[in-house]
Structure formats: C-alpha cells, structure tokens
Write a structure and sequence with these properties.
Blueprint lengths: L1 H12 L3 E13 L2 E3 L4 E4 L1 E7 L4 E8 L7 E5 L2 E6 L2 E6 L5 E6 L3 E7 L2 E6 L8 E7 L5 E6 L8 E7 L2 E6 L11 E6 L4 E7 L7 E7 L2 E6 L6 E7 L4 E8 L8 E4 L2 E4 L6 E6 L4 E10 L4 E4 L6 E6 L5 E6 L5 E7 L3 E14 L7 E3 L6 E5 L7 E4 L5 E5 L3 E3 L6 E7 L2 E7 L1
Length: about 425
C-alpha cells in the first residue's frame, strides 16, 4: 500500500501542486501601559501588512488589555494571548469569535483541537501555569496545578509530534530564575519528563526547533546570555555562553540554519551557528536596535521591529543579502510578527527554474539551478518551514516520511520523503 501511494503521488505531481504564498503579515503591537499610574496610554492593536501592496492597517484593538504576548494561526482563525485573556479571531475578517479569561497568559500553541497556553506574571503566584483549551469555543479542558504541572512561570512552546515542549523559566521571580524544559503529552494530557538546562541555561526566553533538537536563548540571571541545545532523541542538554550581557526579550530568531540575536541596547545583529554551537560574527549591513525578529519562510526576507515603547513602532524588511527592501510604521512595541502562509493549487510544477533530485529520497536532496545566495526552504503541507539553507543540498533524513515542497523565491517543487 505504501509503494502504491508513493507512485500515485509522483504521477500527480507532474501535473499540479500547492504553491505556498505569503498572504499577509500579522503584527501584535503591545501598546503602552504606565505601571506607575495604572493607565493604558496606548492600547494593544493587531495590524495586517499586505506584502503585495506594501500597505499596513490596524485591524483590531484589544481594549482594556495592558499588553499582548503571542499570536498563532490555525486554519481560518488566529489566537491572541493578551494580558488576562485569550482571543479567537477570524483570519480574513479579524472579527472576534470567542474569548476566555486567562490571567498572565504568555504563549500559545495549537495541536488538533487543543490550544495550549502558558502563564506567568510579575509578583503574581498562580495555582496553575499551564492550561489546555478547546480551540472551537475556548472552553477549558484542563488546568494543571503545580503538582501535576509546572511549578513556576512558563513561557515558550514548541510542538513536535504529540509532545508540547515548553520552557519553565520563573522569569518574574528575581533571583530565582529557572531553566527547565517540560513535556506535555498531547495524547493523554499528562505532564512530566522535566529536564534542567543547568546553571548556565537559566531563564530561557525563546525556544526554537531545528532538525532533531530544540534550542533556547537564555538570559540566565539577567547578567549574561547563553544558548542551550536540547537533543530530542535523548533529552540531553548542552549550553554555550555567548555574551556577558542579556539578549533581552524577543530579539532572537531562527534565520536559515543560524540563530540571529541581538544583545540588549546594542545595534548590531549577531549570528550563532547551530551546527558548530558557536558565534560566527556580526550580521553585515544592519545596525539598528530591534525589539522583535522573524524570518518569512517563503522568500527568506527578515522582518525586524523597533520601538520607543510609548509612541511609535516600525517594522523593517531585509532581503537575504541584508539590504533593506521596505519598512512600514506599526503600532507601539510591535512584539510578535506572524506570517499568514496560504497555498494555491493548480500551478504547473515544471514552471520552476530549478530541479530537485533524487525524488523520492530518504536522505539528501540536491538542488540544481539555484543562484549562490538564494534561500532554499523545505515546507510541509501546512506551509511551515522545516528546513532552510543557502546550500545546494538539504539533509531530510531526520524528517518524517511524507510530502514536502522545496521553495525558492515562491516557486516550489514537490518532493517525497520515504
């Protein structure tokens, strides 16, 4: 049966395939809350940037929210973590579909019909730092107490298979920061298998999956920055110190096969080689102090935001050569940038100006016909980038069997992973 399915897929791929395209870029502007007076001076807003027209507009204002911390897209909807509530929004109209109270909500992730939410807030102790909701109506499915779930404030989430990996950093309890990766079994909703990243891996602020490992960018005890690698197969961590000052919040992202990060208050970007686990020098051509970083998976363009935290915010867009190609004004503190990738069927695969071989394969894909600096991205059927590189080959041996797309500048070729 497996061979028959592969043969059918190869036959169909000579006629048409789904090409992934960037439809819009959603930007979460955190606003400006004056903690001294308790006044919301600039509200939280959601903005939409159209990459074709290069126009940006505010599509929703989240009234009475002091800040917002995350946004995830799932099908025709997206979910926003904002201060004390989770919002479910329609992706095209941006109309609110549902909301639920969740004080201290930090980050979100979707698995099938479940929405996973982490929690944590300064000077606040919760009886639960991990919630799971039904994505249809945001009804609470399970709240893990501090005996059956994380004991401290919890933040970023990465889902791999049926496991949600999340970082427990206790970042709001000064002097008592943690560095733990916990695992939530999404099949039976059981939590456990916590792994401590060690004394140099405290206070992880970002969690990134690349290949067969997870990577965290850590602010330690607010006096330095480190990067930890967590091997998924063995649950084994290792950590490398990279700076004597902190990287701040949000200013790190996966860019191709490197982690690009910025030290707080500095204007240069730095690259960390994932394979060698070492710094490989600054990013040439970019000298701006940023707030949020994100790579767009189709073109490889790099989005980076700036803010003065009380009145303005700007998003810069750079190409793969670090040349600024556009910028647009956003709201105050654009802190989350998410790409709405959609597919359009019926495009002839032979229109691509590159070729991929061998196909099918279970090992190395070789790309012929690409330019030296062109970014090659491997996308799954959801349009999510699972690998990217400027090399002429991709190692897909660690990926599950199935159908993927090799994309260069928006043009795709279907490949089969055996």
């Amino acid at each position: 049966m497996k061979k028959a399915l592969i043969t059918l897929s190869l036959f169909a791929s000579t006629w048409s395939f789904a090409q992934n395209q960037l439809h819009q870029v959603l930007v979460v502007n955190e606003g400006y809350f004056d903690y001294q007076t308790g006044a919301i001076l600039e509200p939280v807003t959601i903005g939409s940037y159209n990459p074709t027209t290069q126009l940006y507009q505010v599509v929703d204002t989240l009234e009475n929210m002091r800040f917002a911390s995350d946004l995830v897209i799932d099908g025709n909807f997206y979910f926003v973590a904002a201060d004390s509530k989770i919002f479910k929004m329609e992706l095209n109209t941006h109309q609110e579909i549902a909301s639920v109270a969740c004080p201290g909500v930090r980050n979100l992730a979707v698995y099938q019909n479940k929405l996973v939410a982490t929690r944590g807030e300064y000077l606040t102790t919760f009886d639960s730092y991990l919630h799971v909701y039904n994505i249809a109506d945001l009804q609470l499915i399970q709240a893990f107490d501090t005996v059956t779930g994380p004991k401290w404030a919890t933040q970023n989430i990465v889902i791999d298979g049926t496991t949600a990996y999340l970082v427990v950093n206790n970042a709001y309890d000064w002097g008592n920061e943690k560095g733990i990766i916990g695992q939530l079994n999404l099949s039976n909703l059981s939590y456990g298998n916590e792994v401590d990243l060690g004394p140099e891996g405290k206070n992880p602020d970002n969690l990134i999956k690349f290949g067969s490992a997870l990577y965290t960018v850590n602010n330690k005890d607010w006096n330095g920055t480190s990067i930890s690698k967590f091997e998924l197969a063995t649950n084994t961590p290792s950590t490398v110190n990279i700076a004597n000052t902190i990287a701040g919040c949000g200013t790190s992202a996966l860019r191709d096969d490197k982690i690009t990060y910025q030290i707080s208050m500095e204007t240069s970007l730095n690259n960390f080689d994932i394979n060698g686990m070492n710094n490989i020098g600054p990013v040439n051509g970019i000298n701006v102090n940023f707030y949020e970083l994100a790579q767009e998976p189709i073109s490889g363009e790099f989005y980076a935001s700036t803010t003065d935290f009380f009145s303005t915010g700007t998003v810069f867009i750079y190409d793969v050569m670090n040349t600024e190609v556009h910028q647009f004004a956003a709201g105050v503190s654009p802190g989350t940038i998410v790409f709405d990738i959609r597919s359009s069927a019926g495009i002839n695969e032979t229109s691509a100006n590159f070729s991929v071989s061998p196909n099918p394969t279970n090992d190395i894909l070789t790309i012929q016909g690409k330019s030296a600096n062109e970014l090659v991205s491997l996308l799954d059927l959801n349009g999510t980038t699972v690998l990217s590189s400027t090399d002429t080959s991709l190692n897909i041996s660690e990926l599950p069997a199935g159908i993927y797309y090799v994309s260069i500048n928006g043009t795709c070729q279907k490949v089969i992973k055996l």
